[in-house]
Structure formats: C-alpha cells, structure tokens
Design a protein that fits this description.
With about 500 residues, the chain is an alpha+beta fold. About 30% of the residues lie in helices and about 15% in strands. It is built from eleven helices and 17 strands. The strands form four sheets. Strands 6, 9, 10, 11, 12, 13, 14, 15, 16 and 17 form a ten-stranded antiparallel β-sheet that branches. A hairpin with a 2-residue loop joins strand 7 and strand 8. Helix 6 crosses helix 7 and helix 6 crosses helix 8. It is elongated.
C-alpha cells in the first residue's frame, strides 16, 4: 500500500514536471525566435541603406517606410551625408516591438528608428530623445526640427544670386587710343628706333586725314591765335588719324577732350601716363560732336578760354606767346597730355607732313558773279558736262585726292543726304533762289537732311562710292529741286563765270 502511494506520488511529480517544463520550453523557443528577429531587421536596414540614402531607418514594414520617407526630405537639405550614422543608430532601438508598428500600446518604440534623421547634425548623432517626443511613427514629421541648421546653409546661397552686376557694362569697352600708345599704332609708316628717336614717313591715309581737316584748321587757327600745324598734329595723335572710334561718326572727337559738349558725351576706356612713363587705364566720358569742324572749334575754345578758374592755362601755346610751333608743343607737353614725349611726336608729324603750310594765311575761295564758289581746293577737271561716249554726263567731275574736303558751293538747306546705287554717298542742297546743287561719290558726308549750311562749309569728303572709277567729286546744278535732266545746267557756266 505504501509502495502504491509512493508510486502515485512519483507519477504526480513527474506529470507536474512535464506540465511545468512544456510552457517554459515554448517560451524559450519564442524567445529564441524573437532574438533572431532583430538580426533579420538589421539585415534589412543594411540592404535598404544601400539602395537609398534616405531610407536607412526603414527596418520594419512598408508602413514604417512611408512614414520615414515623409520626414526624410528636410534632412537631405541639411546634409549631403545622411547615410553615415544610419547603420549604427538603428541597432539600439531594434527590439521585438519593432515588428509591431501598429500596436497602440507601444507607440514610443517605433519612433526610435527615426533617429537617423539626425545626420543633419553630425556633431550630435547620439541624442535620440528630442525626436522621440513625437509619440508615434505617424508623427515623425515634427522631426524636421533637427533641420533647424538649414537656414545658415541655404540663406547664404540666396544672396550670392544678386546679378545687377551686368549694369556695369554701361561704359563702352572700347580702348580709346591716346598719345601714349606706341607711335606705330597711331601713325602708319612711323616707328621708334632702339636709340629712342621717333621716325616718320609719309602715309596716304594720314595725308587723306590731313586734307579733311587742314583748311578748317587753317581758318580756325587764324581766328583764334593758334598754330594750325599743332592743331592738326594733335588731332593725328589723339584720334589715330581719325581711325579711333571716338573720332569716327557719330562722335567726331579728334582731341580726346573729356566731358560733354552741349549735353552730348560718350564713355570709353583710355590710357593715361603717370608722368613717369607708367601707363594706367581709366574709364572716362568724352565730348561728342556733330562733325570735325565742330570738334576743331571746341578745341580752339578750350585753348583760348583755358580751364575753369584759369583762363590762361594754355596761353603758352598761343601764337602771340610762342614764336614757333616748337615752343607751343613744348608748352603743351605735360599740360595738354601726360605723355612725356608729346612734343617730339608733334614736331615729327609737323615736319614730315609739312603742316606749317596751314599756319600761313591764304585767300578764301572767290565768290563769282553768280554767287557760287568752287567746291574743292585741290582738283583737276576730269570730265565735262554733256554728251560722253554715247550717253549724257549730267555734271562736272573734279578729280581729287581721297578725303579732300568738299565745301558747299552756295548756302542753302540740305534736302538729300543718302546713298544711291549710281551716285554713292551724295548730298543735295537747295539754295534760296530755288536752284539745287548735288555732290556725289563722297567718301562720307557730315550733314543731314534739314541742316542749314553756309557757303564754304564742309559738307563731306571726296571718295569713290557708287558707280565711280577713281576718287572724284561729281557736281550737278539744277534749276529746281527735281534734279531732272531737263532742268540741269552746265556747272562750269556758274562756277567759272567772269
């Protein structure tokens, strides 16, 4: 009986042990399974990190991934290296609860994986508590708080954009030649030798320019007690023989005079001499004129009236104060131009091109009994008016050098100033009595329609434009402004009438 009771007791203990050990084993199995789970989650994290820089924290389900992506854009704006801390931070919050993002009882757990948004603050990657205040995965959007450093990064970038700088190029970036430019660049067929002497040889382009301004310079020089030879030589140097942009149409500034004339000016880059041969570049505004003669007259005004507060600033260049042109050029050196060799260049030009001839007084063109003057100073009649080789020649041709000034034969109003296929550049002037004169084949004209011109005023320069062979002026006179062949008269009958 006692053995039977003992057997029952042993059986009861055995059964109890079995009953107790079975759930423990089950729990143990579950714990092992749960322990394996984080490993899988970490593996996913690494895989996701490789495939996308912005989803390093996506170690659970698609729902968690979506919530994380919403919070990612702000972090990418803060840093270009968001993946560095991703693989280390998720290891701390990886708990069995991460597989249950939808459980309402554990809302704080899923928010921990959102810590990878901290890459925006590389200096503080180990502080997960601030974002955890969101409460749940769906509230990860407030985590852009770590992106507060963003303003210092993006704000400086915006001010870099100001692009009003293009307004600076208001000034024309064209270098204005000055007397300090190497002489060979200003005057063709000239050079400075190794010994420092300056040598000139005659050049047709320079001679053509001299013809354009020579007579006007003679006239203005006589009226203002100035050496025309010096005036012409200065114009050659300052304008590169009329080839600089400042000297060409529509500026006509021959002397590089700065400022404005009657409110008109133009800005260029120019070189200056620091009085020791050192050159430097500045932007300056220069006066703008209607034609060469206006430029010459303004130069004379400057020379005779001087500067504000010193009317005799250039008085040493006046004929009454300088016995020779060389004294005048010496006085102008360092005063009109900073070039230390200014007078050497001016003197060389005057000698080479015999500019002293323009210092002499000559009688102006005689007005004939018909009230006309010959429109050129130096010329040869090359073709008369009337029948010529089976056709009719409408006017009188004056062969003359290229650039020779053309003078208005009679005062009147400009009614035409344009280009014509046959006449080339031409000007037509209607006189007070109704007659009209036409000046064709000009190299260029310097008047415009509507201008009132005086007799003897320069209106253009001899050329060979249009249907022309050789440099010459084709001159016509019509009884009216129709310029029809029936109204034409022989110019010689009025130009050379005794």
């Amino acid at each position: 009986m006692k053995k039977k009771s003992t057997y029952k007791l042993v059986s009861f203990v055995f059964l109890s042990q079995m009953l107790l050990t079975t759930p423990l084993q089950v729990l143990a199995d579950e714990q092992v399974f749960s322990a394996d789970q984080p490993v899988t989650a970490e593996a996913r994290t690494e895989t996701t990190t490789d495939s996308s820089d912005t989803t390093g924290e996506d170690n659970t389900t698609d729902t968690t991934t979506d919530g994380t992506e919403e919070s990612t854009p702000p972090s990418t704006g803060d840093s270009s290296e968001p993946t560095t801390p991703d693989t280390s931070e998720p290891t701390e919050p990886s708990t069995p609860e991460e597989t249950k993002p939808t459980e309402p009882t554990k809302p704080t757990k899923p928010t921990e994986p959102t810590e990878p948004t901290k890459p925006t603050e590389p200096s503080q990657p180990q502080k997960p508590t601030p974002p955890s205040t969101g409460g749940s995965t769906g509230e990860t959007q407030p985590t852009p708080q770590p992106s507060q450093p963003t303003p210092p990064v993006t704000t400086p970038a915006a001010p870099v954009a100001p692009t009003p700088a293009p307004a600076a190029p208001v000034a024309q970036e064209v270098r204005q030649p000055s007397a300090t430019t190497p002489i060979q660049d200003l005057v063709p067929s000239s050079q400075e030798t190794d010994e420092g002497s300056i040598h000139f040889e005659k050049d047709e382009s320079v001679e053509s320019f001299i013809r354009k301004i020579g007579e006007s310079s003679r006239k203005i020089g006589q009226e203002n007690d100035l050496y025309a030879s010096v005036m012409i030589a200065q114009a050659i140097l300052e304008s590169a023989s009329g080839q600089s942009q400042l000297a060409q149409s529509p500026n006509y500034n021959l002397f590089g005079i700065k400022g404005t004339h009657e409110g008109n000016g133009v800005t260029f880059a120019t070189q200056e001499d620091a009085s020791d041969g050192t050159l430097y570049t500045i932007q300056a505004t220069f006066r703008k004129y209607a034609n060469y003669e206006e430029s010459l007259e303004d130069y004379a005004k400057l020379m005779t009236e001087g500067l504000t507060g010193n009317s005799e600033f250039y008085s040493g260049a006046w004929k009454s104060n300088a016995e020779t042109y060389k004294e005048a050029t010496e006085f102008l050196t360092g005063r009109y131009a900073t070039d230390t060799r200014y007078n050497e260049k001016l003197n060389g030009l005057i000698e080479t091109y015999d500019l002293e001839q323009y210092d002499k007084e000559v009688a102006g063109p005689e007005v004939n009994k018909e009230g006309y003057i010959v429109p050129l100073r130096n010329y040869t009649i090359s073709s008369p008016f009337g029948p010529r080789g089976g056709e009719f020649h409408r006017g009188l041709d004056f062969a003359a050098p290229q650039g020779e000034p053309i003078y208005a034969s009679k005062a009147g109003t400009v009614i035409k100033a344009e280009f014509h296929p046959s006449w080339g550049n031409y000007v037509a002037i209607e006189h007070e009595d109704g007659t009209t004169a036409l000046y064709a084949h000009q190299q260029e004209y310097i008047v415009k329609v509507g201008d009132e011109v005086e007799q003897g005023q320069i209106i253009g320069f001899v050329g060979s434009t249009g249907n022309s062979t050789g440099s010459h002026l084709h001159f016509e006179i019509s009884r009216d402004n129709s310029l029809s062949q029936a109204q034409l008269i022989d110019p010689a009958t009025v130009l050379f009438a005794e």
